[in-house]
Amino acid sequence: MSNPRTGRRNFLHGVAALGAAGAAGMGLGNAAAKPPFRMGLQLYTVRDPMARDTAGTLKQAAALGYRNFETYGFEPHPVNYYGMPARDFRQLLDGLGLATTTGHYDLHLYLAKPASAMTAYVDRCIEGALALGQRYITWAWLDPQSRDLDSFRRVAERLNLIGAQAAKAGLRVAYHNHDFEFIPQDGKIGYDIILDETDPALVKLQLDLFWVAHSSTRSAHEWFQLQPGRFVMWHVKDMDKARRYTELGNGVIDFTRILADARLAGLEEYFVEQGDNFAQSPLKSIAVSAAYVRKHLE
What we know:
CATH superfamily: Divalent-metal-dependent TIM barrel enzymes
Shape: globular
Structural class: alpha/beta
CATH class: Alpha Beta
Strand content: 15-25%
Number of strands: 12
CATH architecture: Alpha-Beta Barrel
């Protein structure tokens, strides 16, 4: 494994031209150079409908224009998604013309355990991700007791470890943020540790735009400028005036401005998400958000 700090310097040098090109801006609706992004959905948004009727929920989402899904909920023994073997879930997606390129996996549960326990779990994640055709295994959460600076350093160490492990299987690892990464502790924040102490070649970033707007002193654009090309996935979810989740277009976040930085960030996929505070129901909320994406972001 390369030294993370050396890797970061090499990474930044290598993407300088990319950053310069992206700084000029490139919206998703740019007809001259429209990037091939599929409308994505984090399935946590529709977790209740998925629990009642997995196939029916996916069909309804597909009818709204969603084509790429981020999984939520993984069973390592056996390797299952939504109560079915990985191969069966893949067949369901294939039959509907859908894909999944990443999933949120419970890596945080292994942070305090020996590294061997985490790598054993990641072996199962790799098995599942390969079965589904996913490209990324995403670390999505930290328990409250694991949010001090020393814990963030341990997270960075483990991300490098499993990033190398996943790379041997042709996959990548990414880290997803919430608000707690941006809370100052002794003049530092956890997110800086994640960026500075992980190897950019092994560990990518899934930026949650809601939590950046909610809790970060840096804007999304400023984060992209720090490490251009590394923010390969985004969570696109809106924030209302009470600073709660809401449907896209019903809140205060200017996504058209952020999406102009798609090239600068290195964006490969984005996922609409809304954790709660649905105006009526999860399925109606994803319909509102899909309409916003089609009108303003494509």
